[in-house]
Amino acid sequence: MNFLLINRVADSMYSLLHDGQYRNTSLGRDTWKTIIGLQVSLQMNCNMEGFNARCFWRYNSRVRIGFAANNQDDCWTCDSRIGFGSGGLPDDSNTCGHAAQNGDNGNKIVKAMCYLFVH
What we know:
mainly beta
């Protein structure tokens, strides 16, 4: 089991997520990768992390809490992600865990049992 601590002050978790607005965190790519382990793979660009992290084209990777990355040098068509409440390419059915197409460790999909503790 791997854990990740996000220290964020807010009125509630709902207030961070309900409006769909992106709210960044600064944990970094390597820290996000530790919650999956050695099989993790991410594309190298965009590197959008936090709450409501999503790429601009609606079918691509998005996460309610997590990290989205792209192989192009922009945030339009991301095909890799790690996080909670996720969806999009390359596997829209993977709502918690990790999915990547053409990432730094190849094509990978890891479905996970995820828990969110809020204090």
